[in-house]
Amino acid sequence: MNYGQSLPPAALPTLPSMAGEAVDESQLKGLSKYFNSQTNRGRANTAKATYAFFGVVILYNILKPKKSTAAK
Question: Which residues neighbour 37 within 8 Å (Cβ) at sequence distance 6 or greater?
Answer without folding.
Answer: 19, 43, 46
